[in-house]
Specification:
Elements lengths: L1 H40 L13 E7 L4 E6 L12 E2 L12 E4 L17 E6 L4 E13 L14 E7 L10 E9 L1
Parallel strand pairs: 4-7
Antiparallel strand pairs: 1-2, 1-5, 3-4, 5-6, 6-8, 7-8
């Protein structure tokens, strides 16, 4: 009887620990957006002491009621706090290709609901507004696909996350939602 009780208590404790870790990522995503929102409103200030990222823009899709603060880099650790600009691409509103990446189970989960014709709005720290119209989406193999910056991608926006959206395993597939500047 004592052994059964000890096993039951151990299993419940283990379940609570695993459950807590499962809530850690969504909680971090919400907290990150709260702190980034404050930093964005303060003109791009450091969101918390020692942060290695800065807010650069607000992404909005009114139809989906999406409003997210975008950070200046899409590093693995950084995108736990918010979607980020992929290194080597332009900020939204500039003439080149802009790529925003984020996690499928938090900030970029909305990509599954985006439709051609949706308007994606960006507001930079200095108040510049830019709008993009969604033209389509594709699923790519990230080990073979690399976005090329050329005259055809000028004024384009790619919003990227892992595929499938409801997957739990690590994957090389990416959902890429494509939009052009209006």
């Amino acid at each position: 009887m004592r052994l059964a009780w000890a096993i039951a208590v151990s299993l419940v404790t283990l379940g609570l620990i695993v459950g807590a870790f499962g809530l850690l990522h969504p909680a971090k995503a919400l907290l990150g957006q709260f702190l980034l929102e404050r930093a964005f409103a303060s003109g791009g200030a450091e969101p918390w002491p020692g942060a290695d990222m800065r807010p650069v823009s607000r992404l909005r899709i009114e139809r989906l009621k999406v409003s997210l603060i975008v950070i200046d880099r899409a590093s693995g650790k950084g995108i736990a706090w918010g979607p980020g600009i992929v290194a080597g691409t332009d900020l939204p509103g500039r003439s080149g290709l802009s790529i925003i990446a984020g996690h499928r189970d938090s900030h970029m989960a909305f990509l599954g609901e985006v439709r051609p014709g949706d308007i994606v709005k960006f507001t930079t720290i200095d108040g510049q507004d830019t709008e993009y119209r969604v033209t389509g989406a594709m699923v790519v193999d990230s080990s073979r696909w690399s976005p090329q910056t050329n005259s055809q991608t000028q004024g384009m926006l790619y919003m990227v996350t892992c595929w499938p959206l409801d997957g739990q395993e690590t994957t090389l597939k990416r959902l890429v939602v494509v939009a052009g500047i209006i």
